[in-house]
Amino acid sequence: MRIILPDIGARRRMPHTKDDLPDALYSSAQVRGLDASLIAAGTPGFELMQRAARATWRALVRQWPTANKLTVLAGHGNNAGDGYLVAVLARRAGWTVRVLTVGEPQRLQGDAALAHAEAVSEKVMIDAWSANAELRGIMLDALLGTGLAGEVREPYASVIAAINASGLPVAAVDIPSGLCADTGRVLGAAVRADLTVTFIGLKLGLFTGDAADVVGELVFNDLHADPQLIESAAISARRLTASNLPRLAARAPTSHKGKFGHVLLIGGDRGFGGAILLSAQSALRSGAGMVSVATRSEHVPAALARIPEAMVLGTSSANQLMGLLEQVSVLVVGPGLGQAAWGKSLLSAAANAPLPQVWDADALNMLAEEQVKLPADCIITPHPGEAARLLGMTTAEVQADRPAAAHALSKKYTAVVVLKGAGSLIASPDGRLAVCHQGHPAMATAGLGDVLAGLVGALLAQGMAAFDAACLAVWLHANAGAQEGKSGRGLAASDLIPAIRQLLEEQAPCLK
Q1: What's the whole-model pTM score?
Q2: What kind of fold does domain 260-507 have according to CATH?
C-alpha cells in the first residue's frame, strides 16, 4: 500500500470529547427512530444526509484548516452516502478527492444511491478499494455506521487496519467503524479516529468502554431537528456534566458537625491499612461532619498520625463495633477489608446494621460468594472484575456490554451501582443510567477506588440520595483525576483528595 503523508503537520490525537454536547444519550435504535420521526415530520432523508455531510465538512475544515486532500473510505449504507456527499463538497472547494469503495457501489440503495450519483455527476474520482490503494490527505471513515451487529468481517477488517496503520489524520462519520454504538465495545477492529462527527442524538457507545481509544474529538450536530421531537423521545442514559450535577445545599452560618453525618469506615486488615486510611481521608475532606475508622489495632498509630481528626477504633472482633454502629449515620465497608475471618465478621456486622452503606473491594468479593446479604439503601462500586464475579460471568462479558451489566447488577441487588472503568456508569434500580466519560490515563493506579468510596460515603452523610451521591462523587473523582493527571504518570490516589475538595466547593459552595 502506498501512503502519502499530508502537508498539514503531525497527526493529532484529540481529547475524547468537548463538554458543550447534549446530556441525553441514545441507543442506535433510538437514534434511528429519531431519524424516522424527522422524515415522517416532513424532512426528506436526502436533506438530512446533505445536512450531515455539510456538518462533517465544516468540522474537517476547522480541524485541519490547511488540508487540501481527502480520501473517503465508503461502504454500502447511509454512512457511505454521507461520505460521498462530503467528497462532493471537498471537490467543489478545490481539494484533491478520491473515494475508495468497499464492494460494488451498485448495491447502494435509497438516499445513499442518490449521494453516489451526485458524486459521479461532480466527477469525483471513485475507485474500488485494494490493498495497493493510495492513501493521502485526510482519511474519512464512511465504512460502517451504527447498524453493525456482529464482529467486523473482511474486507472491512483489512481496510480498518490500513487506515489505522497509515499515520494519516482520520475523521469518522457518525461513529468510528467497528465501535458498537450501544455498548462502546470494539467489535473485533475499529477505526482510530482523531475526529468523529455524529448526528441527531448522541450514542451511548461513544462514551463508555473502548470509545475513548477510538473516538478522538467528538463533534455533534442535531441536523436542525425539532427540539420538541428530540425532548419527547426516550433516552438510554444521561451524560454527567458540570451543568447537570446534583448539588449539595449551602451550609447555614449556624451549621455544626452534627448536621453533616457521621461516617464509619470499616476495613484495613493486616497489610492493607493504607486503603482504609485513603477512604477515611477522602470522607473527611469531602465534608462529612464526623469520621470514624474501624481497623486493625496495629494501624491505629498510623491512622492518628495521618488523620488526627478521625476517631479510630482498633478492632479485633465484630463485637467491638456494636456500640459504634448505633452512633453513626453511614457505613463505608470494604477498602482493605480482606477475606479472612476478621473481614468476614466485620462485614457480617455491617450487613445487619440498618444504615445507608457503600460497599467496595473485598466486601463485594464476599457478596459475590454469597457469604453475606446486601442490606437496603446500599451503593456498590465494582470494577469490571468484581462486577463479573457478582454476575457470575467473565470480565470480558461485562466489558462487552457495560450498560447491560450495570443495569443487571442494580436489579439483582436492588442497589445503586457504580460500574467503574473508562466511561463509568451509575445505575439505579428504577432504571436510570448516568455516564461519566471524564478521567485521565494517569488514574490507572492503586487506591483510586478507596478514595471514591470515602467520597460517596461523605456525600451520603450530608443528606444526598444514593443515586445523586454516586453521580456527583463519580464526576468529582473523574474530574479531579483529569486535573491532576495533566502532570502525567506517577499520580497517587491521595493527590485527588485536595482536587476533589476544590471541585466540590466550586460545584456546591459551602456558603452562598
Answers
A1: 0.94
A2: UDP-N-acetylmuramoyl-L-alanine:D-glutamate ligase (3.40.1190)
